[in-house]
Specification:
Strand content: under 5%
Order of helices and strands: HHHHH
Structural class: mainly alpha
Number of domains: 2
Radius of gyration: 23 Å
Largest sheet: none
Number of helices: 5
Low-confidence stretches: none
Oligomer: single chain
Mean pLDDT: 85
């Protein structure tokens, strides 16, 4: 499976570059923006495939409590920002946009913002909380594996 993900990383990266190059020749701003956005998504996919291959091929260190707290605060801030963006774009769509292309682009942005919010929330819940190894966790492990559980051994 690792080879498959490495291959997909390469394909997505090549596709991203081809789209980016093709977009340079496009004069229509909507088509150009969509092509460049899809190119960026393909580049993002290549990074994610690379991470999947890495996840499957080696061990990963735990995140310390200090680093975890810093990351959690940062992600919380980004989750809040995404929530605000969802609100702003939703309000713009509710007011009504007469230009079909503009409405299409706003709807695409809204889908992305909703996805980003869900993704960051999931990262915060699953990865940060699961990967953090606290001093308390360490002592729990020591206690569970101790033959005498803190009493003098015989």
């Amino acid at each position: 499976m690792i080879g498959f993900f490495i291959k997909m990383k390469k394909l997505e990266k090549e596709y991203a570059q081809k789209l980016k190059d093709s977009a340079k020749e496009v004069k229509n701003p909507v088509v150009k923006a969509v092509m460049e956005a899809v190119s960026q998504d393909s580049f993002k996919h290549s990074m994610l495939y690379e991470v999947i291959a890495e996840l499957l091929s080696k061990e990963h260190p735990f995140i310390s409590e200090e680093v975890s707290e810093h990351i959690r605060k940062e992600i919380d801030e980004h989750i809040s920002t995404e929530s605000e963006m969802i609100k702003v774009v939703s309000e713009a769509l509710e007011k009504g946009v007469s230009n079909k292309a503009a409405k299409f682009l706003l709807e695409a942005i809204l889908r992305d913002e909703v996805f980003h919010h869900a993704l960051l929330t999931k990262v915060n819940e699953m990865i940060i909380k699961r990967e953090t190894f606290s001093e308390s966790d360490m002592w729990d492990l020591i206690w569970k594996e101790s033959v005498w559980h803190g009493t003098p051994g015989g």
